[in-house]
Amino acid sequence: MTFLVDLARIGADSAGTVGGKAVALARMKQSGVLVPDAVCVTSNAYGVFVAEAGLSERILMELERKPFSEMRWEEVWDAALRIRNLFLTAPWPAALHEALSDGLAAFVGDGPLVVRSSCPEEDSAGASFAGLHESYVNVRGLGPTLEHIKRVWASLWSDGALLYRREQGEAAHFGTMAVLVQRLVTGEASGVAFSRSPQAASEGVVEAVYGLNQGLVDGTIEPDHWRLDRATGRVLEHRAPECRAACLGVGNTGVRTVLLPDAKASRPPLAPEEVADLFAVACRMESLFGAPQDMEWTLAGGRVHALQSRPITTLDSREASDRQAWYKGLHRSYDNLCRMRENIETRLLPEMTETAEELARVSLEALTNLDLAHEIRRRLEINERWVGVYWSEFIPYAHGIRLFGQVYNDAVKPDDPFEFTLLLTHTPLVGMARNRCLGALASLIREHPDWNGGAGFHGDSLPPEVEAAVSAFIEDYGELSWAGATGASNLSPRQALVSLLLEMAAHPPVSEAMVGDTSHLEERFLASFPLEDGEYARGVLALGRSSYRLRDDDNIYMGRLEAELFRGVEEGRRRLDLKGPGTDVEPLREELEHFGRRPTIQSASALGAGGASAAKARQIMGQPAGQGLARGKARVIRRPGDLADLKYGEILVCDVVDPTMTHVVPLAAGIVERRGGMLIHGAIIAREYGLPCVTGVSDATARIDTGDYLTVDGYLGIVTLGEAGAMFEESP
């Protein structure tokens, strides 16, 4: 069985064992195009590794916890991370390790290499998979080369690759991978050349950056862009980037950002004749392969080195192009995330806070009906603007957690692929600070002389000092947006808050999870990097913690703005109820009709409001998201107002725990969610309190009814219905 093959020995019929990328490079080399020297680790090696390490069955188990078509992206990412860790921690089969070591030793030497994917489906006319499998630049030495071959194999099972295969109608759990090991050509400039523009059939495109190509590919560095006439090669337009401040260069390992001297920063990386030469090479590739090509290149010593060439698969499908770009965008670069962090923490969050405070200062009662109508419209527009920011900035920034998780696992190779979350738990969260304030309010009520086990307190008549504390809480954190403001409960937001506090006061205080000293984990992580990469290691840890914090806090900030919108709406509704029909309230009536109702949880009909099916499953599989075992009666949340009925010690069963709902989590004994993922809000808060949590339970709110007796196994991701769950010991 062949495990290694030189580029010069690859034929057109070898794609099944060496992949499309290797076949294309071999053909280019054989036709006289200058390409880097390379050897290919065949898919035979991948097959032996997977078989002897017993990975096939474990991959299948990860992808069949529930129908793959029903898995949300967060669930796919969790599965992909676990699969990746299987590859990283599995030992090399002795014979395969010996064969690859002997075959690669002479080629590897001491020089820098690129280790990149070349699976059979890659770079085909039907599906390019461009950017969905991993490539690693500036790998040095035999040991690191073998390690990075594993990482490339694992990228066959990345979230982006799995979702793209699903989109292409391919089976998610089938696949194989070859790996190219190329010599790294360090050029003065690098880029891409399209023999035909994806946007205009009569044009070609050349893009270039100084230094290595990686900065252009991952979006770290904006390129110079040239549009050319396909027929004549004449430049139609040159578009310079906003700033040419930096490029990517070779470090001791990996790549690093290098500041450009002023002389380079002020001029394009390519001269006009070099643009023409590159476009000519791209056109030559089109003639060679018989289809328009997307060619990656680097310019070294005045010579064009073709790094790879693939057919442009998106000429007739803008939708397909957009989807693939989304899958590629699932993983953002460290530099990109650092820029997002600065923008979010120094500009967006302070602006949100200032806006909420400005809205809170408006005396709505003093406004005329017409002015109140305008104020409601203004508040709605403010909310809509920030919802846009939430999706464009806050949601993508969550990738900082995932970047840290991958970097941690690559460096440490822990047995538990989610060990990295221990370094994130107890990062200061606004939601947890708010819940501590709730706990303090509950203690104030519990310790009050008039409490008497609850008999002396009523929601409509609280002692002055408790009323003042409740008002201060609402001023700091807003009201319960799932309560009366949505029109889904008979309780006003304030009444719902007081009801929650009385329920909390009737039971012992809830403690947050006790997490042991994790300093040794942090030290082990930082020590796994060479000295020169220490700043990066500390930076990616800080980025992970910041992203983790915002993953929960962003909805708290949004909740404050939403609470102010609802305050305006409630004032408008109050006036309509008082005055009835009349011309002076018509603008107000029209504005409230425009606002409509905006439930924060999926409608009951969509979640199976009719109750659980008659034939209930004895056990329901999900994903483990918070360790522990818990038993109790289910409280199923099918509409926002159901949250007001949650009692101490019940199992919270819902579609998703929104951060504005986490007020009630301290009452719960465990959490079951339909939406899956280790890093969704409910899972984060569950871990903060040490609650067993199972996510990704299909049709959870339809298969379980309020009052059902549940056992939640947060270790295995299993929810058991019925008293038989008593065979498990109740979690402490």
Automatic annotation (TrEMBL):
Keywords assigned: ATP-binding, Kinase, Magnesium, Metal-binding, Nucleotide-binding, Pyruvate, Transferase
EC identifiers of the protein: 2.7.9.2
Domain Pyruvate phosphate dikinase AMP/ATP-binding: 17-322
Molecular function terms, GO-annotated: ATP binding; metal ion binding; pyruvate, water dikinase activity
Pathway as given in its UniProt record: Carbohydrate biosynthesis; gluconeogenesis
InterPro entries tied to this protein: ATP_grasp_subdomain_1 (IPR013815), PEP-util_enz_mobile_dom (IPR008279), PEP_synth (IPR006319), Phosphohistidine_dom_sf (IPR036637), PPDK_AMP/ATP-bd (IPR002192)
Reaction catalyzed: pyruvate + ATP + H2O = phosphoenolpyruvate + AMP + phosphate + 2 H(+)
Enzyme's top EC category: transferase
Organism superkingdom: Bacteria
Cofactor dependence: Mg(2+)
Pfam family for this entry, one: PEP-utilizers
Residue ranges annotated for the PEP-utilising enzyme mobile domain, each copy included: 648-717
Gene3D superfamilies registered for this protein in UniProt: ATP-grasp fold, A domain, ATP-grasp fold, B domain, Phosphohistidine domain
Biological role: Catalyzes the phosphorylation of pyruvate to phosphoenolpyruvate.
Record family assignment: Belongs to the PEP-utilizing enzyme family.
Protein name: Phosphoenolpyruvate synthase
Biological classification of the source: Bacteria, Pseudomonadati, Thermodesulfobacteriota, Desulfobacteria, Desulfobacterales
